[in-house]
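Quarterly update from the structural biology core.
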Amino acid sequence: MPADITVEVHEELRGLLPGFLDSRQRDLQQLAHSLECADFPAIAQIAHNMKGVGAGYGFDQVSTLGEQLETAAHQADPAAAAACLADYREFMQHCRVVFI
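Predicted structure, tokenized:
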């Protein structure tokens, strides 16, 4: 992934964005724990939620990664889930929000 990823977020979501970003950080922590425990149902649930919320905030990549992670969880594939988690973590570390 590039060092700086721009995410365009509509101005009317400015007040909601901190909560959205906090939730994504909690996702990362919960996903890491669930992966360590091989709790694929928990991973699938978080991933399904990621699919639903990402695009609504302009974070299309979160939705895409959620879809990939949900598939990995349903297949109980720890390697694929770990790769998705790494991509998710990297995306969240390198995204930069621009309000439009």
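The domain at 5-99 is CATH 1.20.120.160 (Four Helix Bundle (Hemerythrin (Met), subunit A)).
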